[in-house]
Give the backbone structure.
Amino acid sequence: MAHPSQLGFQDAASPIMEELLHFHDHALMIVFLISTLVLYIIVAMVTTKLTNKFILDSQEIEIIWTLLPAIILILIALPSLRILYLMDEINDPHLTIKAMGHQWYWSYEYTDYEDLGFDSYMIPTQDLTPGQFRLLETDHRMVIPVESPIRVLVSAEDVLHSWAVPSLGVKMDAVPGRLNQTAFITSRPGVFYGQCSEICGANHSFMPIVVEAVPLEYFENWSFLMLQDA
Amino acid sequence: MSGEEEDSQIKEFKLLGILDVQKTPCARDAILHGAGGSVAAGVLHFLATSRVKRSFDVGFAGFFLTTLGSWFYCRMRNAKLRVQQRLIQEGIKNKVVYEGTVLDPTKKPKPEAPSSPS
């Protein structure tokens, strides 16, 4: 989860998010170098004593400041497109879960084998137990098996919502009447938090998402218990 | 938890307020190599030409190119290591799954026993 006054990304919990982190570092280094170049040029221009009021053109610098940005853009675009197409791959998911957005909670349906469905409401601040996170915890978590490809079908029952989990590198709009698909693999077990990412009314900030990745046998036990309670 | 936050605050060092050289892989080495390249290029140019301003320009160009080169080389190396790491992880996982079966890659084929004359 995010910690207070955090500026950077959360630690990656999926291979796609790892790739996004690496791409971000790559783009940031390029931005840093361009910034130092501009800073240096500004200092040089402010401190120079050389002036020429009659310069009309210069082929060399025109070529440099045309080619250099083109090269830089290609260096940024190639890894970016690679990740874009990587994110679109859906490689034989082991499990499909439907995440439906409502005002103001999420509901999850696991219908591959049995009919398992439940709602996921935020735990109010006054009901939190020590150690739980304010505005992030839910009464029922979306439990998934770790290191298994998961497909999530996202939609909404009323207004626009968005299902987002930053540490998994996943964000998908929940549009009423439309089924959007996303997929991910969790690299490690853990609990991953997200929040609704599309304005949806008064309690838009109070419908969080909690994904819990557990080993397969724990997932099987959990689904058995959930079916019994249903 | 607060100790870890204090550690991360102490170690964080952002150049121009954006590039955290402590936490970003390869950033620290790239900047240090760039600084070294910059000083070397600038000093060499000055010794050869005695032109101060132009030597500063050459020094900056040296910083730019050395940082970029070191950065890309280090990132390429890290990317190859990451791919190897994933292959090794897959291999270890498959070894556990296939151990003892026909598909076990470490299983040596048993030599055929000669048939005894009846």
User: Anything to note?
Assistant: The helical segments of chain B are 2-11, 27-49, 52-98.
